[in-house]
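Deliverable D2.4 — example input (structure tokens):
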């Protein structure tokens, strides 16, 4: 196996003479296995040079596995400059946990909107396959990969790669789960279950590439930023029996001299402990060669499935203790995932409340009415309802509490002031580990079944008929980029869009993705497939933070049977849509109209001093209404001839448009 470093810096590129030795490009590591499997871990700015090197290689076609730890900028900002992404013979399998605000694909395409970059993700010519990951194990080519959540300000995964008896662990952007100062190290204690899991993940690695952004003396002021002090890293690596430690994700404020001295000090510390572990600092261009053992047929058996991402949303979380301010702060931190935070009902103990409310996770906040979180945690653990429940204890400070005892009962401890995105990531990880699935429970928006933004078929219906149409409804909160359903899937039900907006996307016969419509709040979608039982004709994607009610198909049909008025309204909706479709088919089949628009456009852009025509001006000149013109433009746009840019219509391919008119 060969491991090469192309980007080693954390947070932001830091070029210049003071960082020339260890490098200024952000995170990017290449791993090549002897069997030809090629992996790239993270896509910071170092990916540009790597991409150029890969493109210069003669061997084709290229198949790369891109393992993204998380979608913070310093780990994806090199992707738009990664040459293989533009190579039509290249296949890129891209893996990552989804970010806090959307999907992996959404995060990558977000930084490639025209505001930031001239090429869109959908214009890339390589074949891109996106894989959203949770914790688990899978194979990329011949390399076995294990994943585990790190402790960071976003859901971030560490990767443990094994092939031919060689193991490399990549754990970038991670900080200790527990930090009662530096003294605890001498005690040999490692009380926090999160740190224990982390240690097990590093166990026996031949090479450990680990976040080492800070020093012990810098860390207290930067706690909650999601990065490790070097001293914690060396301690963990020695304990885990790592052979070679590579300090990574260098702080932008650390120059070459400081990094060299940090590394020497780390070596001395390790030697003083009697360990033979080698420690080096990652440097751009550094290459490690790790001899693989011959792979036997037995080892090649592929058992593990790809761990699907099971990011849980909309769980019920019980909050016991703390003040009203604590509850508000927790709500603000966790509500973006759609979680519903339930305060402890008056007069009920924690165990009784869990039995009644059945939360997916319990937050015990020290203070307020909860004087002893240890007692509450122990009681809950001893009960049937709380034995396996994730318990997160929120402490005022790291002060003299019985931490080891507390951690024996609780799942996680966080200290105030906590970092909200870090707490959110940790709660996601614990829920996922406990099998709480995405959209498992109903989200409460506090306005469930309110009428204001319900679709037109609900207008003025008597309450009983309205309720019938909402029977079995599940309210889901969606982040931008979340997919409601995909093109080709069998029909499952109807969506009422209450808040936000949903994009309707379909694939043209040539594979091109087309945005058919953006449906605002108050729209209904999915009823056609429920009525005719045909597969979905389009993919539905949340365009912003969106709240939808999902009603299963059978319940929707039963609701219609209860309400002739709703049936009539639905017929009206369908009739107007049918009419619009007729007009659209008419416009598309009359090549005549497309040709007229094309001629008018050519006339406009080739005449002297002419400006880009607006869609309205073009419609007036051709003598059609605006929707009709827009449908025609879609046809021309699909052919790559024109591009609509706000109100303006631009010619994207003048030669092509000329040929279109002449032929
Ligand atoms: Zn980073
Ligand atoms: Zn990060």
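Example output (designed residues):
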């Amino acid at each position: 196996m060969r491991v090469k470093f192309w980007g080693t810096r954390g947070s932001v590129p830091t070029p210049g003479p003071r960082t020339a030795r260890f490098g200024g490009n952000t995170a990017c590591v290449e791993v090549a296995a002897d069997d030809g499997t090629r992996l790239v871990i993270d896509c910071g700015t170092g990916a540009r040079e790597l991409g150029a090197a890969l493109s210069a290689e003669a061997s084709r076609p290229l198949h790369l596995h891109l393992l993204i730890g998380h979608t913070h900028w310093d780990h994806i900002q090199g992707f738009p400059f990664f040459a293989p992404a533009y190579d039509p013979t290249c296949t890129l399998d891209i893996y990552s946990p989804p970010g806090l605000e959307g999907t992996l694909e959404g995060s990558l395409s977000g930084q490639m909107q025209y505001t930031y970059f001239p090429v869109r993700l959908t214009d890339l010519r390589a074949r891109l396959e996106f894989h959203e990951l949770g914790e688990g194990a899978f194979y990329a080519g011949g390399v076995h990969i294990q994943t585990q959540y790190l402790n960071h300000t976003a859901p971030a995964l560490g990767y443990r790669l094994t092939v031919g008896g060689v193991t490399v662990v990549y754990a970038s952007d991670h900080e200790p789960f527990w930090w009662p100062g530096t003294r605890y190290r001498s005690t040999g204690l490692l009380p926090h279950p999160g740190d224990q899991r982390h240690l097990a993940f590093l166990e026996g690695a031949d090479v450990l590439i680990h976040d080492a952004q800070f020093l012990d003396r810098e860390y207290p002021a930067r706690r909650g930023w999601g990065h490790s002090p070097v001293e914690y890293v060396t301690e963990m690596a020695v304990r885990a029996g790592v052979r070679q430690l590579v300090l990574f994700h260098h702080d932008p404020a650390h120059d070459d001299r400081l990094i060299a001295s940090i590394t020497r000090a780390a070596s001395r510390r390790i030697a003083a402990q009697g360990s033979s572990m080698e420690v080096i600092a990652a440097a751009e261009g550094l290459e490690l060669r790790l001899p693989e053992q011959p792979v036997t047929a037995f080892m090649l058996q592929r058992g593990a499935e790809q761990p699907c991402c099971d990011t849980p949303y909309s769980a019920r979380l019980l909050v016991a203790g703390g003040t009203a301010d604590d509850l508000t702060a927790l709500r603000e931190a966790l509500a973006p995932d759609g979680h519903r935070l339930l305060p402890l009902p008056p007069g009920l103990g924690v165990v009784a409340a869990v039995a009644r409310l059945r939360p997916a996770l319990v937050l015990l906040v020290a203070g307020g009415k909860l004087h002893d979180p240890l007692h509450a945690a122990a009681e809950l653990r001893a009960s049937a309802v709380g034995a396996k429940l994730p318990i997160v204890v929120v402490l005022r400070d790291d002060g003299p509490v019985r931490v080891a005892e507390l951690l024996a009962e609780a799942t996680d401890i966080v200290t105030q002031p906590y970092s909200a995105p870090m707490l959110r990531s940790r709660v996601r990880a614990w829920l996922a580990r406990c099998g709480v699935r995405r959209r498992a429970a109903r989200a409460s928006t506090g306005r469930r079944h309110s009428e204001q933004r319900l679709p037109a078929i609900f207008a003025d219906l008597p309450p009983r008929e309205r309720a019938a149409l909402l029977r079995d409804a599940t309210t889901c909160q969606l982040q931008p980029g979340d997919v409601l359903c995909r093109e080709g899937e069998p029909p499952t039900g109807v969506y009422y869009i209450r808040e936000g907006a949903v994009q309707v996307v379909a694939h043209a016969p040539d594979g091109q993705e087309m945005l058919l419509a953006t449906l605002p709040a108050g729209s209904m979608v999915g009823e056609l497939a429920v009525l005719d039982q045909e597969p979905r004709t389009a993919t539905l994607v949340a365009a912003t933070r969106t709240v939808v009610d999902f009603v299963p198909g059978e319940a929707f049909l039963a609701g219609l049977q209860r309400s002739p008025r709703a049936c009539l309204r639905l017929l009206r909706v369908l009739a107007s849509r049918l009419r619009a479709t007729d007009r659209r088919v008419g416009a598309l089949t009359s090549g005549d109209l497309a040709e007229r628009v094309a001629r008018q456009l050519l006339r406009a852009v080739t005449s002297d001093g002419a400006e880009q025509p607006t869609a309205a001006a073009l419609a007036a000149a051709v003598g059609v209404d605006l929707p009709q013109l827009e449908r025609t433009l879609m046809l021309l746009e699909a052919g790559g001839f024109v591009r609509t840019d706000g109100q303006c219509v631009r010619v994207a391919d003048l030669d092509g448009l000329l040929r279109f008119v002449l032929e």
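The first helix runs from residue 47 to 56.
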